[in-house]
Input
Amino acid sequence: METLEKLQILSGAARYDASCASSGSRRQDASCGTGNTSQGGICHSWSDDGRCISLLKILLSNDCIYDCAYCVNRATNPVPRASFSAREVVELTMEFYRRNYIEGLFLSSAVMQSPDHTMERMVGVAELLRTEERFGGYIHLKIIPGSSSALVRKAGLYADRISVNIELPSQESLRRLAPQKHKQAILEPMSLIGRQIQESMLERKASRHAPRFAPAGQSTQMIIGASPESDLQILRLSEGLYRKMHLKRVYYSAFVPVNADNRLPVLASPPLLREHRLYQADWLLRFYGFSAGEILSDDAPNLDETFDPKTSWALRHPEFFPVEINRADYGTLLRVPGIGVTSARRIVAARRFSVITPEGLKRIGVVMKRAKYFITCSGRPFEKTGRQPELLRSRLLIGDGAGESIPEPPPKQLSLPGLFA
Amino acid sequence: MNRYLYDGTPEGLLSAAALIIAEEKEPETITLAERENTLFEEGLFIATDVAAAEAFFQRLRREAPDAASIFYYFVLAEKEGLDTSLLHYLFLALRQGDRVNGHLTHSAVRDVVMVSRKASRELHRFKGMLRFEKLRDGAYLARMEPDCNILQPLAGHFSRRLRAEDWFIYDVRRRIAARWHQGKLQFGSIEQFVAPALSDEEKKVQALWLTFFRTIAIPDRKNPRLQKSNMPMKYWKYLTEKQGV
Output
């Protein structure tokens, strides 16, 4: 099979992996190799679905022995199968990198023969790139659940980022939809990686020649909408992964039905808005000092589709507002809908010089669309909606009236056959 | 006299700023503009003094390193008509140090920081969206038409990244080029650009990239608006994956 044909099969099979990050690592290698990495990451292109292309995202093989219900590569699916040789992947990576198409390689794979067999070949590709080609660009390796800890350790030494996919948000769903994957086989490498990263950071503090272990950290991914978990369950899981396992990122991937299977829900379209709201909530967990229990509760365990999670929180907590721009501390400013990390920092920096006026606030670049209902400037409110929650909700929804209309409600999940039987 | 003129060069601007900030009691009331040599032009012309400009910039780097970098990107943006804002910004930077960059409620600071940010944002974009093509002699060539004059820092980035290759980056509109050859970086202008022949394998690699670009998108999630907002169409001209679209 020609490389072009393989690339078509194996990039098409890799596209449901959501991660595209090339950040978090600063690799500035010796003078003769090719490539380095950038701390902030670099996007090289944006595909037709609007997602950024930063890495050459491919599978080493789509020839899978597993039969996970949601996966396009499941063993019983009649799709064309292909496998790259290590040399082919190395050449593609180097040719693409030299033309500045990519920041590096994101290599994943279907499970060929056994987890160890697969992992060994994937690590082999990274080893070839690092040692033979002296490649200094970004490498993200997927860890195959169930592979030996020796291989996981080796992967971490060659890669910038490694990730184990959690796939589904609960053990029960995993058992139903991916019966050959076990919770333990996923969590064990995750905690091993976490420990190795901590250790390597300590060692590198003692000596900067100590080897780096996955300097850009670890991430994971789960599918949203293929199983019945609530958003609260999902966010609690993410919270645990961030706080206890020190993950860099949790990716959420709206379920795109690629197989007909009576264990899977029938959707009118992928739950993209739900995915978007989960990402917003994820940001609140990581950068805004929110906890999962603040964003959602057992009484209302799912994110509001009409409002973003921070606005929803603000509407439930009128006692917290209005926030005085000239006095509130950074953490309080961050709780105002429409004020993000950038705006909050700018406000804190600017008010050292003088009192911030409403005009000054606009000059700083704070977007007032939502914020104006929740703040005061030297005691003066911007809007007189006061504490009437209903008025506030409708104002937030339709803006100031002119020309804007209420967005159409998104397509709902139709049914979950079998799951609630 | 509270209006000064200079010759329009970055060195001239720094010389003028050095002199005004040293001599004037209230630099914040001074206006500065580029000399246009019209008959009725008012203002005192300050001649460029390269040594004074250099000394002033070194002082800025010592006392407010972030402000020096904001000045650098501001110059790359080639934005005209903000000379007075820049003068006031430099004056404040020397008085307050890097804290000045947080003073965004001040209109001069805001103008300078925003223009500067435009250039650094475009530089970052081109680190990703520049495309090299392999030539018959084995060297690589990239062409671009950025709004800001980012060639110098961009070439610096690739001199650390693609050290093992020989390459050129050509700014088509400004007719200037950077060349990395045997580990040395050079800059020059190009009077007449003749597109050199591509290597035989180039079209093959481009076809591979195009295939990847097309198949990596999830068909159910097609979103051309998002694609365009991340990757504005003005940059598509030299993007390998957007040829013939």
Observations:
- The two ends of chain B are 57 Å apart (CA to CA).
